[in-house]
User: What shape does this take?
Amino acid sequence: MKDAKTIPKRIIFTLLLLVVIGWFFFPVYWALITSFKTPLDLMSSRPTFFPKKMTLSSYEDVLLRSKFLYYLRSSIIIASGVTIITLILATGAAYSLSRLNFKGKRLFSNLILLVYLFPGILLAVPIFKMMTKIGLYDMLPSVVLVHVMITLPFCIWTLRTFFDQIPRSLEDAARIDGASKLSVLYKLYLPLIGPGLVTSAIFSFVASWNEYIFPLILLSTPEKKTIPVGIAGWASSYTIDWGQITAAVILAIIPVIILIQLIGRRFVAGLSGAIKG
Amino acid sequence: MKKNIAENESVLGWILSTPSVVWILLIIVYPVILTLWISLHQQKMVEVNPPFIGLKNYIDLLPSAKFLFQLKLTVIWTFLNIVLITPVGVLLGLLLNRQFKGVGILRTWILLSWIIPIVATTLIWQWMLEPAVGIINFLLYETGITRSYVNFLGDPSISMLSIVVVNVWRWSPFMGIMTLAALQNVPKEFYDAARVDGANAWQTFWHITLPQIIPTVSVTSFILTIWLFNMFPPIWLLTEGGPIESTTTLPIAIYKEAFRLFRMGKAATYSIILLIVVSAFVAGYMMLFVKSREEVVK
Assistant: This one.
């Protein structure tokens, strides 16, 4: 708008912006600050907003004197498994939805939408029973199996939009040169949808890394727990060390920070596109 | 010939999409059928042959005061969240749609509270809401807003409100980003036309901006309502359904029945009822939506 902004208007806008930024970012800042505080500072009844003395002792506690590294191992194994399987399945599905005509295509699209709406907690009881029956209870692959279902819809959708953007003339040219449909997929399309694969990979990893319900009900050995389940337990223990907990929280947030930094914009676009689509 | 199979679009389409379909059927459709089966049996933990008891679980549960109370809590939880997340999110979207220094960075980083692990959210807020040394109690007391320290999560009279506030913190950026996407799709010519006609800021908002973002906001609220109705982690992590059952919504009841009391049959019954409620809600929304679309066509 061209009309000159009056000064009071500008002040109100700036104040509103500061409130918004404070409200959404202060809690994470507070966790960060807490994780560097000394134990004495932590229990003070007058909390300090900018601690003068910073220490890494909480991080040492987390990394050296807790089960955190076990949790980290589980989380990485599960999230990597989920990422690999999701990419393989989603690429095939997205390609067929974008470029091939086959019976049941519509039904398949709708099935994917259904997954979006389907709440995890409703599956807790039957999935627990299924995994117990086939002997996967307390095994990491059981969580991978379930998490792939959570990541598939978004990744199929994202990759499909990438396939849609590639001009068909490219494929036609390759076909005239005698390439089969499958080799077109591998040799022509895969390099072109690279950014889509990166987006899907990071999304899958973070979605699995963050998920709480299924590792909670499917894993029981303390050393097999994932980071969310493991550190959630610390808050209900007899003595709560908030320095240690906030340090673990900050470590758990790191992959998310990477996600926002690397694919934030594309992720936002995918999100709003998925809702409309 | 091998080549023919790979060349047939129909066959190739099926080959490539079957794994995903099977996966979805195996992890969603089959479990739903299994849940129905379990709900008709007196299943304790994981016995192989639990006795068949027909609809007894449903007959016991549906009319009970406990169930009706939990249903009421679930509706309250969902309602409070929606009426707070929607306006906060829309305002956020409007704010982010303006041009100012750093808006590009803010548009992606605003997702932070939504995208960090739910456990991180709840642990951070448990620490801030801590009754003895928590920062929120300190600030409220020092500024004179409260007369004494409040046990936000441990006092049944405000526990529900506390967990709602945490959840609004987490989810309003989601609504904000959706609103922003809708705002950016409003054709610029609309605003030019409004200015030519001499519309003021309020009229422009009311007659142009709002009608353009309502479809997106309503779809997002609809999906959010479903998610909220079935939301388990934030409530469980913050209060475990307590204190004295004051936050035991239906998803919490499912988890408690199954994994604390080991009554799988009861938990499955809860799940099926929840599924029916959600399906009815979806069907109702679809009918309304289709109806209003038909009216537009007429």
Remarks:
- The CA atoms of residues 152 and 198 of chain A lie 14 Å apart.
- Chain A touches chain B through 94 residues (CB under 8 Å).
